[in-house]
C-alpha cells in the first residue's frame, strides 16, 4: 500500500507541473500565416475529419500540403480523426474545413491541452510507473517512486509536450514495448513498437536495438529449434501489425507511395526542411554534427542533396554499428537499454533532416537507465533540455524552462546524490578503466575531474541561457546565441556518444540479467 501512496504523490506532482506549464504559450500562438505545431495538430484534425482517407496525404484544393500537410504515419492521422470527432461534438467551428485555419480561443486551447493530458495519462505515465516497479535494482519501494519522479519531471519532454505542443504517444508506446521485453513478452513488445513506429517515423531511431536484441535472442535459442519458431512469430507479428495500421491505404499502391513520400522527403536535402522562413526551423539551431559543421562549412552549398543523403547514411551506419553488433552477439536487457540510447544519439547527431525536438528520442531511453548511471543520465537530460532553448524562447517558454530545469536537477541531487556517484564503477567504466591501467595515470583523479567538468558544463549552460534570454545579439550576428547553444550542445552529445559506446563495448558481465535460453 505504501508504494502506491508514494507513487500517487509522484504522479500528482508530475501532473501539477504539466498543468502549470500548459497554462503558458504554445508553438506559433498568434503568429500567422503558419502559426506553429499547435495549429499543425489542429489542422490535421480538420483534414482527417472532413476529407476521405484517400485525400489525407495528397495535395488538393481542400488539402494544401504546403500548409501543415500530414507528414506522419497513419496512426497519427487516426489519432487526429478521433480528436476531431470529439472536437466536432463540442464546437464544430474548431474543425470546420477552410474556415477553422488558425483558429485560436481559450476553450479550444483547453481542449487541445486536455488531449495531451489524456495521452499522457493513458499511455506515457502508466508505462513509466510500471517500468520503475519492474526494475530489479529498485527493490526498495521508495526507490521506485523516486526513479519515476525523476523520469516524469524531465523538463525537456514536459516543455515540448505541454508547452510547445506535441503528443507523447510514440514515446509512450515505445516505453510499453521496452516494458514488454523486460518481461519476456516479445510478441506484445513487437506490437507496441510497431504502433510507435506507425505513429511517428522518427521511432526508426530505436528500431535497430529492438531488431538486434530480438534477433540475438533468436540466435541464442538456436535457429534450428526454439529460435526459428520465435523468429517466425516475430516476423508474423510485425507484418500483421503493419498491415492493420496501413489497411485503409493498402488498396492502392499510389496511396502507399504518396504516404511514404510524405514521410521521407529526401529531396529536401540534409537539413530539416525550411518550408517557410521561420527561426525555429533554421538548420543552424539543431545540435547535431551537420548543423554545427555548417557554421564553418556551408555543406548545403558544397554537396548535392543526393550526396548529402549518402554521406549521412554512411556516417550514421558506421557510428551505430559497434553497439548493434555487440547487442546481437550478446543480447541482454541492460545492453538493449544502453543501445537504445547510443543508436538514437547516433541518429540524432549524424542522420538526415533532424529536428531539434528529436533529442527527446534519445532522452527517454536515457531516463530508462537513470537508476544505473544517475550522474551521467542527469547530466545528459540537462544538456538535452538546454539544446531546446532557442525553440523554447520563440514559444515564450523561458519561465517554465527556468523553473523546471533547476527543479529537475534538485530532485536528481536529492534522489540519487549524483555528485557522490562519479567513480569509474558508478559510471559503469570499471572494466574500461582496468584496461587502461598503467597507460593513463590521471584515472585516479577521475571522479574529481568528472565533477569539475559537470559543474563547468552547468555554468556554461547557465550563462548561455541568460545571454540568450536577456542580451540582444550583435546586428552582424543575429543567430549568435542560438548557434552557440547548438554547438555547445553538440560537443556534449559527441562526448556522451563516446561514453555510452564505451559502456556498451566494455560491458562483459551483463549484471543482473536473466540468462536467455
Automatic annotation (TrEMBL):
**Membrane-spanning residues where?**
110-133, 145-167, 173-197, 227-249, 335-352, 359-386, 398-419, 453-471, 483-506
Q: State the family named in the UniProt similarity comment for this chain.
A: Belongs to the ALG6/ALG8 glucosyltransferase family.
Keyword list (alphabetical) reads: Endoplasmic reticulum, Glycosyltransferase, Membrane, Signal, Transferase, Transmembrane, Transmembrane helix
Q: How does it sit in the membrane?
A: Multi-pass membrane protein
InterPro entries with a match to the protein in the record? Glyco_trans_ALG6/ALG8 (IPR004856)
Q: Please give the chief subcellular localization of this protein.
A: endoplasmic reticulum
**Record carries keyword Transferase:** yes
Q: Does the keyword Iron apply?
A: no
Q: Where in the cell is it found?
A: Endoplasmic reticulum membrane
Q: In which pathway does it act?
A: Protein modification; protein glycosylation
GO MF terms listed in the record are: dolichyl pyrophosphate Man9GlcNAc2 alpha-1,3-glucosyltransferase activity
EC number(s) reported in the record: 2.4.1.-
- Native organism is Brachypodius melanocephalos
Query: Which Pfam family, giving just one, matches this sequence?
Result: Alg6_Alg8
Where does the signal sequence lie? 1-22
Q: Which reaction does it catalyse?
A: an alpha-D-Man-(1->2)-alpha-D-Man-(1->2)-alpha-D-Man-(1->3)-[alpha-D-Man-(1->2)-alpha-D-Man-(1->3)-[alpha-D-Man-(1->2)-alpha-D-Man-(1->6)]-alpha-D-Man-(1->6)]-beta-D-Man-(1->4)-beta-D-GlcNAc-(1->4)-alpha-D-GlcNAc-diphospho-di-trans,poly-cis-dolichol + a di-trans,poly-cis-dolichyl beta-D-glucosyl phosphate = an alpha-D-Glc-(1->3)-alpha-D-Man-(1->2)-alpha-D-Man-(1->2)-alpha-D-Man-(1->3)-[alpha-D-Man-(1->2)-alpha-D-Man-(1->3)-[alpha-D-Man-(1->2)-alpha-D-Man-(1->6)]-alpha-D-Man-(1->6)]-beta-D-Man-(1->4)-beta-D-GlcNAc-(1->4)-alpha-D-GlcNAc-diphospho-di-trans,poly-cis-dolichol + a di-trans,poly-cis-dolichyl phosphate + H(+)
* Name the UniProt record assigns to this protein: Alpha-1,3-glucosyltransferase
Q: What is the lineage of its organism?
A: Eukaryota, Metazoa, Chordata, Craniata, Vertebrata
- Give the protein's biological function: Dolichyl pyrophosphate Man9GlcNAc2 alpha-1,3-glucosyltransferase that operates in the biosynthetic pathway of dolichol-linked oligosaccharides, the glycan precursors employed in protein asparagine (N)-glycosylation. The assembly of dolichol-linked oligosaccharides begins on the cytosolic side of the endoplasmic reticulum membrane and finishes in its lumen. The sequential addition of sugars to dolichol pyrophosphate produces dolichol-linked oligosaccharides containing fourteen sugars, including two GlcNAcs, nine mannoses and three glucoses.
Give me the Gene Ontology terms describing cellular component.
endoplasmic reticulum membrane
Q: EC top class, in one word?
A: transferase
Which superkingdom, per the lineage? Answer: Eukaryota
Amino acid at each position: 500500500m505504501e508504494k502506491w501512496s508514494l507513487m500517487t504523490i509522484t504522479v500528482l506532482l508530475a501532473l501539477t507541473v504539466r498543468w502549470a506549464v500548459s497554462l503558458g504559450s504554445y508553438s506559433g500562438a498568434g503568429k500567422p500565416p503558419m502559426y506553429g505545431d499547435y495549429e499543425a495538430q489542429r489542422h490535421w484534425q480538420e483534414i482527417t475529419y472532413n476529407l476521405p482517407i484517400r485525400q489525407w496525404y495528397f495535395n488538393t484544393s481542400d488539402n494544401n500540403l504546403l500548409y501543415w500537410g500530414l507528414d506522419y504515419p497513419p496512426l497519427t492521422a487516426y489519432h487526429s480523426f478521433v480528436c476531431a470527432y470529439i472536437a466536432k461534438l463540442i464546437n464544430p467551428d474548431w474543425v470546420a474545413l477552410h474556415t477553422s485555419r488558425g483558429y485560436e480561443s481559450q476553450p479550444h486551447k483547453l481542449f487541445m491541452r486536455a488531449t495531451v493530458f489524456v495521452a499522457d495519462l493513458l499511455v506515457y505515465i502508466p508505462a513509466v510507473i510500471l517500468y520503475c516497479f519492474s526494475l530489479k535494482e529498485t527493490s526498495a519501494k521508495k526507490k521506485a517512486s523516486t526513479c519515476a519522479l525523476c523520469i516524469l519531471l524531465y523538463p525537456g519532454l514536459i516543455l515540448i509536450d505541454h508547452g510547445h505542443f506535441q503528443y507523447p504517444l510514440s514515446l509512450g508506446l515505445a516505453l510499453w514495448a521496452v516494458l514488454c521485453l523486460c518481461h519476456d513478452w516479445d510478441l506484445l513488445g513487437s506490437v507496441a513498437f510497431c504502433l510507435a513506429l506507425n505513429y511517428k517515423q522518427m521511432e526508426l531511431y530505436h528500431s535497430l536495438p529492438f531488431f538486434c536484441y530480438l534477433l540475438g535472442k533468436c540466435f541464442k535459442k538456436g535457429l534450428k529449434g526454439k529460435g526459428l519458431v520465435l523468429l517466425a512469430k516475430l516476423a508474423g507479428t510485425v507484418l500483421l501489425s503493419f498491415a492493420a495500421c496501413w489497411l485503409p491505404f493498402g488498396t492502392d499502391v499510389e496511396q502507399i507511395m504518396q504516404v511514404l513520400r510524405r514521410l521521407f522527403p529526401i529531396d529536401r536535402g540534409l537539413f530539416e526542411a525550411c518550408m517557410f522562413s521561420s527561426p525555429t526551423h533554421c538548420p543552424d539551431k539543431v545540435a547535431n554534427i551537420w548543423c554545427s559543421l555548417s557554421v564553418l562549412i556551408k555543406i548545403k552549398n558544397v554537396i548535392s542533396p543526393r550526396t548529402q543523403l549518402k554521406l549521412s547514411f554512411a556516417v550514421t551506419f558506421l557510428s551505430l554499428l559497434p553497439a548493434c553488433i555487440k547487442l546481437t552477439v550478446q543480447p541482454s536487457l541492460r545492453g538493449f537499454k544502453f543501445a537504445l540510447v547510443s543508436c538514437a544519439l547516433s541518429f540524432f547527431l549524424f542522420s538526415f533532416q533532424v529536428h531539434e525536438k528529436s533529442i527527446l528520442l534519445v532522452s527517454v531511453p536515457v531516463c530508462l537507465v537513470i537508476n544505473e548511471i544517475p550522474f551521467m543520465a542527469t547530466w545528459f537530460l540537462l544538456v538535452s533540455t538546454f539544446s531546446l532553448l532557442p525553440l523554447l524562447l520563440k514559444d515564450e517558454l523561458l519561465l517554465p524552462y527556468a523553473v523546471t530545469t533547476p527543479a529537475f536537477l534538485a530532485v536528481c541531487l536529492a534522489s540519487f546524490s549524483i555528485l557522490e556517484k562519479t567513480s569509474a564503477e558508478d559510471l559503469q567504466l570499471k572494466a574500461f578503466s582496468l584496461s587502461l591501467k598503467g597507460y593513463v595515470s590521471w584515472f585516479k583523479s577521475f571522479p574529481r575531474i568528472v565533477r569539475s567538468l559537470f559543474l563547468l558544463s552547468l555554468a556554461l549552460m547557465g550563462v548561455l541561457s541568460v545571454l540568450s534570454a536577456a542580451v540582444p545579439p550583435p546586428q552582424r550576428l543575429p543567430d549568435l546565441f542560438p548557434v552557440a547553444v547548438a554547438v555547445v550542445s553538440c560537443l556534449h552529445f559527441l562526448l556522451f556518444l563516446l561514453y555510452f559506446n564505451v559502456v556498451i563495448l566494455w560491458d562483459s558481465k551483463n549484471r543482473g540479467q536473466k540468462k536467455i535460453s
